[in-house]
Design brief:
With about 170 residues, this protein is mostly beta strands. It has one helix at about 85-90; strands at about 25-30, 50-55, 70-75, 95, 110, 115-120, 125, 135, 150, 155. Strands 1-2-3-4 form a four-stranded antiparallel sheet. A four-stranded antiparallel sheet has the order 5-6-7-8, with no helix packed on it.
Length: about 170
């Protein structure tokens, strides 16, 4: 934590940009031609790769004040999803924390060969079809899921993260 003190700092309740995703938040693209736009299922290629996103409140507050709010969003065939993954999905769209459970690096790479998400720092590899289960690398556990639901065809946050985030110490 000495090298990355912001990982230990809790979100400030008085700053809505630092709050973790809240029910009703939409997901918006972090980068690319659609940066800042709300993610729709048809914007995502079926089967991956994942895109990076941040949650955005219904009144437009981008929750980018904490790096722990970085998300990965992917569109998958529901027939390929585990039951737990399907339960957290908004139709074909699932979301996970993009903070690796090893040392808090971003999970921002993709393995075309394995169709899995990869941490760019130490290679931890996660299966998006099976609850972002760890399949390779030094990470100690799966990525936390962010339960979604559809609201007028748009994926929105249904509940908070399924478990402690990668960079959180308690």
């Amino acid at each position: 934590m000495a090298l990355a003190p912001w990982l230990a700092r809790p979100a400030r309740a008085d700053d809505p940009s630092e709050l973790h995703p809240q029910p009703g938040d939409r997901l918006v693209f972090l980068t690319g031609a659609k940066k800042g736009q709300i993610i729709k299922p048809e914007d995502l290629p079926l089967g991956g790769p994942q895109v990076q996103a941040y949650p955005q409140s219904p009144d437009g507050v981008l929750r980018d004040g904490s790096r722990l709010n970085l998300l990965i969003v992917i569109r998958l065939d529901p027939k390929e999803m585990s039951p737990a993954t399907r339960a957290n999905a908004a139709g074909e769209v699932v979301a996970y924390s993009a903070v690796c459970t090893h040392q808090g690096c971003p999970v921002n790479a993709w393995s075309d060969e394995k169709k899995m998400m990869v941490c760019s720092c130490h290679g931890s590899t996660y299966d998006p079809r099976d609850g972002a289960k760890l399949v390779f690398g030094p990470a100690p556990r799966a990525l936390p899921a962010l339960p979604l639901k559809l609201d007028a065809g748009i994926p929105v946050v249904a509940a908070g993260f399924s478990e402690r985030l990668g960079g959180e110490t308690a």
